[in-house]
Design goal:
The chain contains nine helices and 18 strands. Strands 1, 2, 3, 12, 13, 14, 15, 16 and 17 form a nine-stranded mixed β-sheet that branches. A six-stranded antiparallel β-sheet has the order 5-4-9-6-7-8. The structure holds zinc ion. Belongs to the peptidase M42 family.
């Protein structure tokens, strides 16, 4: 049996591929290459999602797992007269969490330029308390481009224009103590987990009782990720996305988190029972929790008309949508639950 559940290489590689919602082509190419190497069938939707299937003994029904390849990011909304760039947010995050961050501006002709996201009053020596008290609102931020530009035309000459995608430095670190710190562990930790699961199933030649689909969605952060491309024979849909450890939460960075209710209401009671039983039978460390400000790809699927039992599981990601952190064990427990559930 292959027992190595975690190798940080895949996670580090995918965290390194900028993929704000709407700009996920490079992530898609990466997945295609990985799945080709593992000799697994897949298809790609018009919208840019990827669906891989492992055939089971019974192909009349299937279980679909999803993880999203898109992340938060920004888009250029204006080339300002001072030759800096205003942005508009992609996805929901606090502006202070990206303040002072290095960015890449991706132009439509394939060029990449570096810059920094600063407030419009970035120096305490110039603006004093005004700099401190400035409202951390998107309109008070601008990208300072690391090119010698002094007027808007200089910026346009580089190929930078309104509508360009902006990605933030992920600042990925893996500590000796097993913590992973990075932007966009939501949901790339789960994408890495699923790629490990697929490799595990292939290496160990596991034949599931029914077909198993893995849907890699690409518009989750804006709400309509898994709204299409789910096979009709899906009887259970399990979104693999982050859990939320923090003050007054039951989740942790060490266990697989199982969400019982989020902002859209309760998840399927019976399916959660099955997942909890699977954890108990296989000594998998799990935590049940509730996330009042969360919506997942399971909801996107349900709102699009899917008729299946649905659940949400995943690694516990601290400081979600900020500079996030989890522990390797949380990803491993998530992988174990997926594998054990597929085998059960
Ligand atoms: Zn997510």
């Amino acid at each position: 049996m292959e027992n190595n559940y975690f190798d940080s290489k895949i996670l580090e590689e995918i965290l390194n591929i900028p993929s704000p919602t709407g700009y996920t082509k490079n992530m898609l190419n990466y997945l295609q290459k990985e799945l080709d190497n593992m000799n697994l069938e897949y298809k790609i939707s018009n919208k840019g999602a990827l669906l891989a299937t492992i055939k089971g003994k019974d192909s009349n029904k299937s279980i679909t797992f999803s993880a999203h390849i898109d992340t938060l990011g920004a888009i250029v909304s204006q080339v300002k007269s001072n030759s800096r760039l205003s942005i508009n947010q992609i996805g929901g995050y606090m502006m202070n969490s990206v303040e002072g961050e290095n960015v890449i501006i991706h132009t439509r002709n394939g060029k990449k330029y570096e810059g920094t996201l600063q407030t419009i009053k970035p120096s305490i020596h110039i603006d004093g308390n005004d700099a401190k008290d400035l409202k951390r609102d998107c309109k008070n931020y601008e990208i300072v481009i690391d090119e010698q530009v002094s007027e808007p035309q200089d910026v346009y000459n580089l190929g930078i224009e309104v509508g360009n995608i902006v990605s933030f430095d992920t600042r990925t670190r893996i500590t000796k103590s097993g913590f992973i710190k990075s932007r966009y562990l939501d949901d790339k930790a789960s994408v890495a987990a699923i790629l490990h699961v697929i490799r595990y199933i292939k290496l160990n030649d596991i034949k599931p009782k029914c077909d198993i689909n893995f849907l890699f969605s690409n518009y989750e952060e804006v709400g309509h990720g898994a709204s299409s491309f789910i096979p009709d024979n899906t009887v259970e849909f399990i979104a693999v996305d982050m859990g939320c450890p923090g003050e007054n939460q039951n989740s942790s960075e060490y266990d697989v988190c199982i969400c019982t209710k989020d902002s859209n209401g309760p998840y399927d009671y019976e399916l959660i029972n099955k997942l909890v039983d699977t954890c108990k039978e296989n000594n998998i460390n799990y935590k049940l929790d509730i996330y009042p400000n969360y919506g997942s790809d399971a909801t996107a699927a349900l709102k699009a008309g899917m008729d299946a039992r649905f659940a949400l599981i995943g690694p516990g990601i601290f400081a979600s949508h900020g500079y996030e952190r989890t522990h390797i064990s949380s990803i491993i427990e998530t992988e174990k639950l997926i594998i054990s559930y597929i085998k059960s």
